[in-house]
Protein backbone atom coordinates (compact mmCIF):
# COMPACT_ATOMS: atom_id res chain seq x y z
CA UNK A 1 0.00 0.00 0.00
CA UNK A 2 1.27 3.48 -0.83
CA UNK A 3 2.22 5.37 2.34
CA UNK A 4 0.45 8.63 3.21
CA UNK A 5 3.69 10.56 3.77
CA UNK A 6 4.33 13.11 6.52
CA UNK A 7 1.51 15.59 6.87
CA UNK A 8 2.20 19.19 7.87
CA UNK A 9 0.40 18.76 11.20
CA UNK A 10 2.32 15.62 12.16
CA UNK A 11 5.58 17.32 11.07
CA UNK A 12 4.90 20.30 13.35
CA UNK A 13 3.93 18.11 16.32
CA UNK A 14 7.11 16.06 15.84
CA UNK A 15 9.28 19.20 15.50
CA UNK A 16 7.87 20.64 18.73
CA UNK A 17 8.49 17.34 20.50
CA UNK A 18 12.12 17.24 19.29
CA UNK A 19 12.70 20.78 20.51
CA UNK A 20 11.68 19.52 23.93
CA UNK A 21 9.16 22.35 24.24
CA UNK A 22 6.76 21.98 27.09
CA UNK A 23 4.25 22.72 24.42
CA UNK A 24 0.76 23.78 25.37
CA UNK A 25 -0.26 22.91 21.83
CA UNK A 26 -0.99 26.58 21.07
CA UNK A 27 1.77 26.95 18.50
CA UNK A 28 0.78 23.73 16.74
CA UNK A 29 -2.83 24.91 16.86
CA UNK A 30 -1.90 28.31 15.45
CA UNK A 31 -0.04 26.81 12.49
CA UNK A 32 -3.01 24.56 11.95
CA UNK A 33 -5.32 27.62 11.85
CA UNK A 34 -3.04 29.25 9.25
CA UNK A 35 -3.01 26.02 7.23
CA UNK A 36 -6.80 25.96 7.18
CA UNK A 37 -6.90 29.56 5.90
CA UNK A 38 -4.39 28.66 3.17
CA UNK A 39 -6.31 25.54 2.11
CA UNK A 40 -9.54 27.55 1.85
CA UNK A 41 -7.77 30.20 -0.24
CA UNK A 42 -6.14 27.54 -2.44
CA UNK A 43 -9.54 26.06 -3.12
CA UNK A 44 -10.97 29.40 -4.32
CA UNK A 45 -7.85 30.41 -6.26
CA UNK A 46 -7.99 27.07 -8.06
CA UNK A 47 -11.57 27.59 -9.11
CA UNK A 48 -10.86 31.14 -10.31
CA UNK A 49 -13.71 32.58 -12.33
CA UNK A 50 -15.87 29.54 -11.58
CA UNK A 51 -15.96 30.71 -7.96
CA UNK A 52 -16.58 34.33 -9.01
CA UNK A 53 -13.44 35.55 -7.24
CA UNK A 54 -11.67 37.43 -10.06
CA UNK A 55 -11.70 41.18 -10.58
CA UNK A 56 -11.22 44.32 -8.51
CA UNK A 57 -13.27 46.05 -5.82
CA UNK A 58 -13.72 49.81 -5.46
CA UNK A 59 -11.67 49.93 -2.24
CA UNK A 60 -7.98 50.62 -1.60
CA UNK A 61 -5.74 49.30 1.18
CA UNK A 62 -3.62 51.43 3.55
CA UNK A 63 -0.88 51.69 0.90
CA UNK A 64 -3.29 52.96 -1.76
CA UNK A 65 -3.34 49.69 -3.76
CA UNK A 66 -6.69 48.90 -5.37
CA UNK A 67 -7.95 45.77 -3.63
CA UNK A 68 -8.88 42.75 -5.68
CA UNK A 69 -11.97 40.75 -4.70
CA UNK A 70 -9.73 37.87 -3.74
CA UNK A 71 -7.54 40.16 -1.53
CA UNK A 72 -10.55 40.79 0.67
CA UNK A 73 -11.79 37.20 0.63
CA UNK A 74 -8.34 35.85 1.53
CA UNK A 75 -8.04 38.45 4.29
CA UNK A 76 -11.40 37.40 5.78
CA UNK A 77 -10.42 33.73 5.60
CA UNK A 78 -7.22 34.41 7.56
CA UNK A 79 -9.14 36.37 10.20
CA UNK A 80 -11.84 33.71 10.46
CA UNK A 81 -9.27 30.96 10.92
CA UNK A 82 -7.26 32.90 13.51
CA UNK A 83 -9.80 34.60 15.74
CA UNK A 84 -11.75 31.67 17.12
CA UNK A 85 -9.38 29.10 18.58
CA UNK A 86 -7.48 30.88 21.35
CA UNK A 87 -4.04 30.66 19.72
CA UNK A 88 -3.72 34.24 18.54
CA UNK A 89 -3.96 37.58 20.39
CA UNK A 90 -3.91 39.96 17.44
CA UNK A 91 -3.22 40.30 13.74
CA UNK A 92 -1.76 42.77 11.28
CA UNK A 93 -2.69 42.39 7.64
CA UNK A 94 -1.51 44.17 4.53
CA UNK A 95 -5.18 44.59 3.68
CA UNK A 96 -6.20 46.29 6.94
CA UNK A 97 -5.45 49.92 7.86
CA UNK A 98 -4.94 49.14 11.55
CA UNK A 99 -3.91 46.10 13.56
CA UNK A 100 -6.76 43.81 14.54
CA UNK A 101 -7.52 42.74 18.10
CA UNK A 102 -9.96 39.95 18.87
CA UNK A 103 -13.66 40.64 19.42
CA UNK A 104 -14.88 40.71 23.01
CA UNK A 105 -15.40 37.21 24.40
CA UNK A 106 -13.01 35.39 22.04
CA UNK A 107 -10.19 33.51 23.81
CA UNK A 108 -6.74 35.21 23.58
CA UNK A 109 -3.65 33.22 22.68
CA UNK A 110 0.10 33.76 23.03
CA UNK A 111 0.89 34.79 19.47
CA UNK A 112 0.61 37.70 17.06
CA UNK A 113 0.31 36.95 13.35
CA UNK A 114 1.13 39.29 10.48
CA UNK A 115 0.13 38.36 6.95
CA UNK A 116 -0.19 39.36 3.36
CA UNK A 117 -3.21 37.18 2.54
CA UNK A 118 -2.81 37.38 -1.25
CA UNK A 119 0.63 38.44 -2.38
CA UNK A 120 0.90 39.29 -6.07
CA UNK A 121 -2.85 39.73 -6.41
CA UNK A 122 -2.49 41.47 -9.79
CA UNK A 123 -1.64 37.96 -11.05
CA UNK A 124 -5.03 36.67 -9.94
CA UNK A 125 -6.98 37.73 -13.03
CA UNK A 126 -4.39 36.29 -15.44
CA UNK A 127 -4.21 32.86 -13.75
CA UNK A 128 -0.59 33.24 -12.63
CA UNK A 129 1.14 32.58 -9.30
CA UNK A 130 -0.19 34.23 -6.16
CA UNK A 131 0.52 33.37 -2.54
CA UNK A 132 0.08 34.13 1.14
CA UNK A 133 2.94 35.19 3.43
CA UNK A 134 2.80 35.06 7.22
CA UNK A 135 4.94 35.69 10.27
CA UNK A 136 4.40 34.65 13.90
CA UNK A 137 5.54 36.80 16.83
CA UNK A 138 5.03 36.47 20.58
CA UNK A 139 2.22 38.56 22.08
CA UNK A 140 2.88 40.56 25.25
CA UNK A 141 1.91 38.43 28.24
CA UNK A 142 0.66 41.32 30.36
CA UNK A 143 -2.03 42.80 28.12
CA UNK A 144 -5.56 41.87 27.19
CA UNK A 145 -5.19 43.41 23.73
CA UNK A 146 -1.96 44.09 21.82
CA UNK A 147 -1.26 47.52 20.30
CA UNK A 148 0.61 48.46 17.12
CA UNK A 149 3.84 48.86 19.17
CA UNK A 150 3.66 45.17 20.13
CA UNK A 151 4.04 44.27 16.47
CA UNK A 152 7.14 46.48 16.22
CA UNK A 153 9.54 43.60 16.85
CA UNK A 154 12.58 43.09 14.63
CA UNK A 155 12.50 40.05 12.36
CA UNK A 156 15.01 38.27 14.59
CA UNK A 157 12.15 37.86 17.11
CA UNK A 158 9.97 35.85 14.71
CA UNK A 159 8.89 32.47 16.07
CA UNK A 160 7.92 31.15 12.65
CA UNK A 161 7.44 32.35 9.10
CA UNK A 162 6.05 30.83 5.98
CA UNK A 163 4.29 31.24 2.72
CA UNK A 164 1.76 29.32 0.72
CA UNK A 165 2.27 29.40 -3.04
CA UNK A 166 -0.86 28.94 -5.15
CA UNK A 167 0.78 27.85 -8.39
CA UNK A 168 0.35 24.79 -10.60
CA UNK A 169 0.32 22.99 -7.25
CA UNK A 170 -0.23 24.64 -3.88
CA UNK A 171 2.76 24.50 -1.54
CA UNK A 172 3.29 25.54 2.05
CA UNK A 173 6.87 26.45 2.90
CA UNK A 174 7.59 26.88 6.57
CA UNK A 175 10.34 27.64 9.05
CA UNK A 176 10.15 27.56 12.82
CA UNK A 177 13.83 28.52 13.10
CA UNK A 178 15.09 25.03 12.42
CA UNK A 179 15.56 24.95 8.64
CA UNK A 180 12.97 25.23 5.88
CA UNK A 181 10.58 22.53 4.72
CA UNK A 182 8.09 22.46 1.86
CA UNK A 183 4.75 20.66 1.75
CA UNK A 184 2.58 20.07 -1.31
CA UNK A 185 -1.21 20.15 -1.01
CA UNK A 186 -2.68 16.80 -1.97
CA UNK A 187 -6.10 17.83 -3.23
CA UNK A 188 -7.59 14.36 -2.94
CA UNK A 189 -7.09 14.17 0.84
CA UNK A 190 -6.87 17.91 1.57
CA UNK A 191 -3.55 17.70 3.41
CA UNK A 192 -0.15 19.31 2.91
CA UNK A 193 2.42 16.49 2.59
CA UNK A 194 6.16 16.92 3.13
CA UNK A 195 7.72 16.86 -0.35
CA UNK A 196 10.67 19.26 0.00
CA UNK A 197 12.55 18.52 3.24
CA UNK A 198 15.51 20.76 4.25
CA UNK A 199 15.26 23.26 1.42
CA UNK A 200 18.60 24.95 0.77
CA UNK A 201 19.39 27.87 -1.50
CA UNK A 202 22.49 27.32 -3.65
CA UNK A 203 25.11 29.92 -2.65
CA UNK A 204 25.95 30.89 -6.22
CA UNK A 205 23.66 31.92 -9.02
CA UNK A 206 23.51 33.74 -12.31
CA UNK A 207 19.79 34.55 -12.19
CA UNK A 208 18.31 37.81 -10.93
CA UNK A 209 14.76 39.12 -10.52
CA UNK A 210 14.00 42.84 -10.58
CA UNK A 211 11.34 45.00 -12.20
CA UNK A 212 13.52 46.62 -14.88
CA UNK A 213 10.86 49.13 -15.83
CA UNK A 214 11.90 51.01 -12.66
CA UNK A 215 15.56 51.11 -13.66
CA UNK A 216 15.87 54.90 -13.99
CA UNK A 217 14.67 55.32 -10.39
CA UNK A 218 16.91 52.72 -8.72
CA UNK A 219 19.67 53.73 -6.32
CA UNK A 220 23.11 53.88 -7.96
CA UNK A 221 24.65 50.60 -6.61
CA UNK A 222 21.75 48.54 -7.97
CA UNK A 223 21.89 50.36 -11.34
CA UNK A 224 25.58 49.48 -11.59
CA UNK A 225 25.13 45.84 -10.53
CA UNK A 226 22.37 45.16 -13.08
CA UNK A 227 24.32 47.00 -15.77
CA UNK A 228 27.29 44.71 -15.04
CA UNK A 229 25.06 41.57 -15.05
CA UNK A 230 23.72 42.55 -18.46
CA UNK A 231 27.20 42.78 -19.94
CA UNK A 232 27.45 38.99 -19.54
CA UNK A 233 30.77 37.21 -20.05
CA UNK A 234 32.42 40.39 -21.34
CA UNK A 235 31.50 42.41 -18.24
CA UNK A 236 33.24 42.65 -14.85
CA UNK A 237 31.10 39.82 -13.39
CA UNK A 238 32.39 37.48 -16.10
CA UNK A 239 29.28 35.38 -16.64
CA UNK A 240 26.00 35.42 -18.50
CA UNK A 241 22.95 36.20 -16.36
CA UNK A 242 19.32 35.21 -16.79
CA UNK A 243 16.35 37.29 -15.60
CA UNK A 244 12.92 36.30 -14.26
CA UNK A 245 9.97 38.35 -12.95
CA UNK A 246 6.86 36.63 -11.56
CA UNK A 247 5.49 39.88 -10.02
CA UNK A 248 4.64 37.97 -6.84
CA UNK A 249 7.34 37.76 -4.18
CA UNK A 250 6.11 34.31 -3.15
CA UNK A 251 6.82 33.02 -6.66
CA UNK A 252 10.27 34.67 -6.79
CA UNK A 253 11.34 33.35 -3.39
CA UNK A 254 10.02 29.89 -4.16
CA UNK A 255 12.07 29.77 -7.37
CA UNK A 256 15.12 30.95 -5.43
CA UNK A 257 14.59 28.24 -2.78
CA UNK A 258 14.37 25.64 -5.54
CA UNK A 259 17.26 26.67 -7.77
CA UNK A 260 18.95 29.81 -6.42
CA UNK A 261 18.84 33.40 -7.62
CA UNK A 262 18.51 36.90 -6.22
CA UNK A 263 15.38 39.03 -5.85
CA UNK A 264 15.64 42.80 -5.60
CA UNK A 265 13.08 45.47 -4.79
CA UNK A 266 15.47 48.28 -3.98
CA UNK A 267 15.07 51.84 -2.80
CA UNK A 268 14.14 54.03 -5.73
CA UNK A 269 13.96 57.80 -6.04
CA UNK A 270 10.18 57.76 -5.72
CA UNK A 271 10.14 55.90 -2.44
CA UNK A 272 13.42 56.96 -0.82
CA UNK A 273 11.72 58.43 2.30
CA UNK A 274 9.46 55.42 2.87
CA UNK A 275 12.30 52.96 2.29
CA UNK A 276 11.13 50.78 -0.60
CA UNK A 277 7.99 49.15 -1.97
CA UNK A 278 7.63 45.95 0.02
CA UNK A 279 6.35 45.81 3.58
CA UNK A 280 8.65 44.91 6.44
CA UNK A 281 6.14 42.99 8.57
CA UNK A 282 4.23 41.11 5.87
CA UNK A 283 6.90 40.52 3.23
CA UNK A 284 10.45 41.56 4.21
CA UNK A 285 10.79 39.87 7.61
CA UNK A 286 9.02 36.55 6.94
CA UNK A 287 10.80 36.04 3.63
CA UNK A 288 14.14 37.08 5.18
CA UNK A 289 13.71 34.44 7.90
CA UNK A 290 12.89 31.75 5.33
CA UNK A 291 15.79 32.74 3.06
CA UNK A 292 18.32 32.88 5.92
CA UNK A 293 17.08 29.59 7.34
CA UNK A 294 17.65 28.06 3.90
CA UNK A 295 21.26 29.31 3.87
CA UNK A 296 20.66 32.48 1.83
CA UNK A 297 21.05 36.15 2.76
CA UNK A 298 18.49 38.96 3.10
CA UNK A 299 19.64 42.56 3.24
CA UNK A 300 18.38 46.10 2.61
CA UNK A 301 21.71 47.04 0.97
CA UNK A 302 22.70 48.62 4.29
CA UNK A 303 22.05 45.88 6.86
CA UNK A 304 20.25 42.65 7.58
CA UNK A 305 16.49 42.98 6.96
CA UNK A 306 15.70 41.08 10.16
CA UNK A 307 17.67 43.63 12.20
CA UNK A 308 15.65 46.62 11.00
CA UNK A 309 13.94 48.11 14.06
CA UNK A 310 10.27 48.60 13.10
CA UNK A 311 8.96 52.14 13.61
CA UNK A 312 5.50 51.15 14.89
CA UNK A 313 3.72 51.64 11.56
CA UNK A 314 2.50 48.15 10.60
CA UNK A 315 2.75 49.12 6.93
CA UNK A 316 6.40 50.23 7.10
CA UNK A 317 8.28 49.49 3.87
CA UNK A 318 11.76 48.12 3.39
CA UNK A 319 14.21 47.74 0.49
CA UNK A 320 14.83 44.08 -0.30
CA UNK A 321 17.85 42.24 -1.70
CA UNK A 322 17.65 38.52 -0.96
CA UNK A 323 18.60 35.09 -2.21
CA UNK A 324 21.81 33.19 -2.96
CA UNK A 325 24.36 34.19 -0.35
CA UNK A 326 27.40 34.86 -2.52
CA UNK A 327 25.41 36.90 -5.03
CA UNK A 328 23.80 39.03 -2.28
CA UNK A 329 27.29 39.66 -0.93
CA UNK A 330 28.40 40.69 -4.42
CA UNK A 331 25.52 43.20 -4.58
CA UNK A 332 26.46 44.52 -1.13
CA UNK A 333 30.00 45.14 -2.38
CA UNK A 334 28.44 47.61 -4.89
CA UNK A 335 26.77 49.40 -1.97
CA UNK A 336 30.01 49.44 0.00
CA UNK A 337 31.88 50.90 -2.98
CA UNK A 338 29.27 53.63 -3.64
P1 LIG B 1 0.77 42.90 -3.83
O1 LIG B 1 0.87 42.04 -2.60
O2 LIG B 1 0.17 44.22 -3.53
O3 LIG B 1 0.11 42.21 -4.95
O4 LIG B 1 2.27 43.27 -4.26
C1 LIG B 1 3.08 42.36 -4.86
C2 LIG B 1 4.47 42.78 -4.56
C3 LIG B 1 5.47 41.66 -4.58
O5 LIG B 1 4.99 40.44 -4.20
C4 LIG B 1 5.99 41.67 -5.98
O6 LIG B 1 7.26 41.14 -6.04
C5 LIG B 1 5.93 43.11 -6.34
O7 LIG B 1 4.89 43.67 -5.56
C6 LIG B 1 5.61 43.29 -7.78
O8 LIG B 1 5.87 44.59 -8.08
P2 LIG B 1 5.68 45.25 -9.52
O9 LIG B 1 4.32 45.84 -9.50
O10 LIG B 1 6.77 46.26 -9.58
O11 LIG B 1 5.83 44.18 -10.56
TrEMBL record:
Compartment list: Cytoplasm
Family: Belongs to the FBPase class 1 family.
Protein name as catalogued: Fructose-1,6-bisphosphatase class 1
BP-aspect Gene Ontology terms: fructose 1,6-bisphosphate metabolic process; fructose 6-phosphate metabolic process; fructose metabolic process; gluconeogenesis; sucrose biosynthetic process
Gene (name only): fbp
InterPro entries attached to this UniProt entry: FBPase_C_dom, FBPase_class-1, FBPase_N, FBPtase, Fructose_bisphosphatase_AS
One GO cellular component, as annotated: cytosol
Cofactor(s) it depends on: Mg(2+)
NCBIfam families: PRK09293.1-1 (NF006778), PRK09293.1-3 (NF006779)
Domain Fructose-1-6-bisphosphatase class I N-terminal: 6-197
Organism: Cocleimonas flava
